[in-house]
Fold this protein.
Amino acid sequence: MHLPRPASAPARRSSRLPRGARRLQLLQAAQEVFVAQGFHAAAMDDIADRAGVSKPVLYQHFPGKRELYLALLEQQVTALTDNVRRAMEGTDDNRTRVDGAVGAYFDFVNAEGAAFRLVFESDLRNDDDVRELADRGHRACVEAIAEVIAADTGLDPERSLLLAAGMTGLAETSARWWLPRKGTVSRDEAVSLMTALSWRGISGFPRIEGSAH
């Protein structure tokens, strides 16, 4: 007598994400590895393991570790510059603009995953493409603020850019100083303090007639 064979279990199929979703997954895994280990110590094997994919899958999307790092850096630089531009364009009230710009830096530094370290503390800044990408993002933030300063005060572009660079420098430096101490000062209070400091300076410049307040 032959016993019936047990039904075979259906073959397991590996999950196939759309290309865009897979790319985002790989970037997230790369962020975790690069933040924890830095560029030089990180390996593509580590990133593939963190993403739960084979190394050939990783290479289908990124030809090498440097290209992956650049893609991740561009993603993070774009996120910061978009938030600063949004702060400038989302209102006509200049104090609210200052608050939004300062808040953009605090939120970027405080975001889960500490990706800000790739932008502000990269161990690959001697690479021309990395340096150019980070500098381009910094310039974009400065220029977005400078445009508002020039339109509001009538100052020439160079002076407007200098003031804007001072404001972004204040926001970045204070946010990075605050991060390890945020248990003593809340995010909202810290942003409010730095906004007040920035506003006391920039609001002292005469406004041209018909400009926003």
